[in-house]
């Protein structure tokens, strides 16, 4: 009785499937039968077999139910390994121009050392006169690197070295009780902290009231 129920359920499930799903399932089952038929004892999968299941995994949502030869995790691993190999091959360095001869490279450096004021265009022209064909860009790459300059002092070091000579300047306004505006100018020294110059002016007055401290 149970076998009849399971058979009816399987028939109903097959009838509700799309034609595409039936075709892919038929392909998967026939492929596995072919693998078993060509293997004497243990099934041996070829790269084309792995590629087929990678494609089925992308096209068919129920591929796990038809898979018998290997575990589904194995197909997932095949896909990841193929992805890594594909991008490793794409990012591999392609063969380009042959490298510059070491003798020509040494000649360029020797000319640059003997003539410090010559740049890549001048050295390129001299090499052409000698019958050596090389691009100006290649010459510039072969030139010796200029010596690195010592790093400039930091802002903190600059303040520590010149703290005694630095001053701060401020310009601000002060409203008065009579609704006037005073314009103030202030100069401060830092070492030691003192007022160097202080000036207050009212633009409505013809003269400026100022106070200078030394």
Description:
By secondary structure, the protein is α+β, with helices and mostly antiparallel strands. The protein has 3 domains: 19-89, no CATH class; 102-142; 162-212, no CATH class. The protein has 9 helices and 4 strands; from the N terminus they run H-H-H-H-H-H-H-H-H-E-E-E-E. A hairpin with a 7-residue loop joins strand 3 (193-201) and strand 4 (209-212). The longest helix has 20 residues, at 19-38. The protein is flat and about 105 Å long. The chain starts with a helix and ends with a strand.
Describe the secondary-structure layout:
Blueprint: H1 2-16, H2 19-38, H3 47-59, H4 63-66, H5 72-90, H6 102-114, H7 120-129, H8 136-142, H9 155-161, E1 167-175, E2 181-190, E3 193-201, E4 209-212
Antiparallel strand pairs: 1-2, 2-3, 3-4
Helix pairs in contact: 3-5, 7-8
Uncertain residue segments: 208-214
- Note the beta-strand portion: 5-15%
* Number of domain units: 3
What is the global morphology?
Answer: flat
